[in-house]
Amino acid sequence: DGGITQSPKYLFRKEGQNVTLSCEQNLNHDAMYWYRQDPGQGLRLIYYSQIVNDFQKGDIAEGYSVSREKKESFPLTVTSAQKNPTAFYLCASSEQGVSGYTFGSGTRLTVV
Amino acid sequence: SQQGEEDPQALSIQEGENATMNCSYKTSINNLQWYRQNSGRGLVHLILIRSNEREKHSGRLRVTLDTSKKSSSLLITASRAADTASYFCATGGSGGYQKVTFGTGTKLQVIP
What we know:
The complex is a heterodimer of chains A (112) and B (112). Chain A is mainly β and 112 residues long. Chain A is built from no helices and 11 strands. Chain A has strands at 4-7, 10-13, 19-25, 31-37, 43-51, 54-57, 64-66, 76-78, 87-94, 102-103, 107-111. In chain A, a hairpin with a 2-residue loop joins strand 5 and strand 6. Chain A is globular. Chain B has 112 residues and is mainly beta. Chain B contains no helices and 11 strands. In chain B, the strands form 2 sheets. In chain B, strands 2, 4, 5, 9, 10 and 11 form a 6-stranded mixed β-sheet that branches. In chain B, strands 1-3-8-7-6 form a 5-stranded antiparallel β-sheet, with no helix packed on it. In chain B, a hairpin with a 4-residue loop joins strand 7 (61-66) and strand 8 (71-76). Chains A and B meet through strand 4, strand 5, strand 9 and strand 10 of A and strand 4, strand 5, strand 9 and strand 10 of B.
């Protein structure tokens, strides 16, 4: 079955550490996105990528980094520069043109 | 920045009743989408309506779009307990790879 896989489901980070969240899709979608969701809030865009080896900052990119070396993969690194990283992180992908997004099941990151 | 604002923020109804959620947005759009999110899960795309469409149906879902009022509504008919979830509207701009902006969501509870 085609879809998006995010791992891990739960992640704990110590202060000052970098952590990487995985996002893999087998839908052959060109575009991929990372969103952050805080409790009771909507989604805020962190980074997005329209094509391999290219990506753009979203509304809240500070403290995060991404790479897009393969079409299927769009990992997100939460760096120590992100002061409030505890949140639910969602990865999504879409086809070219006007279409809905397909979302992964999310990674819940907690700073301990 | 979040473009869409859903109203109400929370809604509680009895099973079998209809549920109506509204979304208002600020700037011109190419399309508007509705998503459902079960607690702790990723979002699921429900329906997409383009700016030149006024109404769209999908099963028990009916979406309307009024571009003159910059608003949309999602109607779920004959609600079921399984419809309990948060519902988000998302507005998409023009361009080859649209970047959608999500609203803050309506939390729907359907009481059996």
